Amino acid sequence: METGDRGGEQDGPTVDAKQPRSLADALSRRRALLGMGAVAGIAAADAGGFAYAGGWLRPGALTPSRFTDRFERVYGRHDGFRRNHAKGLGAVGTFASTGAAAAICRAAVFREGSVPLIGRFSLSGGLPDQADASATVRGLGLLFQGPDGQQWRTAMINIPVFPDSTPQGFYERLLASAPVPETGRPDPQKMAAFLARHPETVAAMKVIKQGALGAGFADSAFYGLNAFRFTNRAGATVPVRWAVIPQEAANPRAAPAGKDYLFDDLVRTLAQGPLSWRLVLTVGEPGDPTHDATKPWPRSRRTIEAGTITVTAVQTEAPGNARDVNYDPLVLPDGITASDDPLLAARSAVYARSFTRRAEEPKTPSAVDVSRVLG
Fold this sequence. Notes:
The chain is α+β, with helices and mostly antiparallel strands. It folds into two domains: 36 residues; 306 residues, Catalase core domain (Catalase HpII,  Chain A, domain 1), CATH 2.40.180. Helix content is 27%, strand content 21%. The protein has nine helices and ten strands. Strands 1, 2, 3, 4, 5, 6, 7, 8, 9 and 10 form a ten-stranded antiparallel sheet that branches. It is globular. The chain starts with 22 loop residues before the first helix and ends with a helix. Has an organic peroxide-dependent peroxidase activity. It comes from Mycobacterium europaeum. Its EC number is 1.11.1.-. InterPro entries: Catalase, Catalase_core, Catalase_sf, Catalase_SrpA-type_pred. This is Catalase-related peroxidase.
């Protein structure tokens, strides 16, 4: 679960002005904004209240604050940074739609043509200065600025399924994976006990291990994981998952060198020219699970080549760029709605709580500096 921040106003990735406090105000304002098709970011409503109303939180059991607290206890507190996927680089680019996806979705972003993107490459975990490692899950967040002013935001990772099917399962795995002070590694007995209680995670890990994760950012595929519902102009609705697939295999790399070698390689590669990925939509059929991100859909499902995502440059995180964007999966344009996957409301809620905290904290310079690499 990528936990980050809350997002900008409709005209760009700036920090939202105010977050409503009460559940009633939150739901009222969210409904109003959804009706206008002007959902700009998580600050448009209190996502914690929204998630509670959706049913994933139980009184006394799990809250956005408890979830965020757990990230801080596992990784430590790092002021001004996301509680997960803390290490990252901003990016800019475009999405060129083929127009093919308009058959299943009326969102303006799928009309033939191009729209600007604001993106963020990241590593999972709450350490903003962690050493890069190819085995660490990599993330790509994208904000599509539609031609009608509506935004579509998505936070993807480079594994084809998610290890957990529920927010509670994710929280329990976070507890089990906390390093023991004596060894700096998770307690194997706690992890074994967790896996014994969660066979869905065991099955998901098998699927993940079978896939090719890519050596770096440039040659990685990134997956949206959760299912959504797409509705076209005729009112027909279908379940959809998506992935972005690299256009070309990356050039062979030298042996890893330096603590930031994955990000450094990305910076150098983009200095030589843009990088592109294909946005591929997979259309589900009756019986395909939309509520469980641990289960893959059959490979035989229909796919649509929706367009090309091109990243033209990366940026050291700073005010006004991806640092201040929330890649909340519930910021959706007209034509895309959430499925019954409980992780979606949970992600939205925890993102909001994480941002609320870091927005009030002093900002520390990013550990990944583009100018250091390019000289």
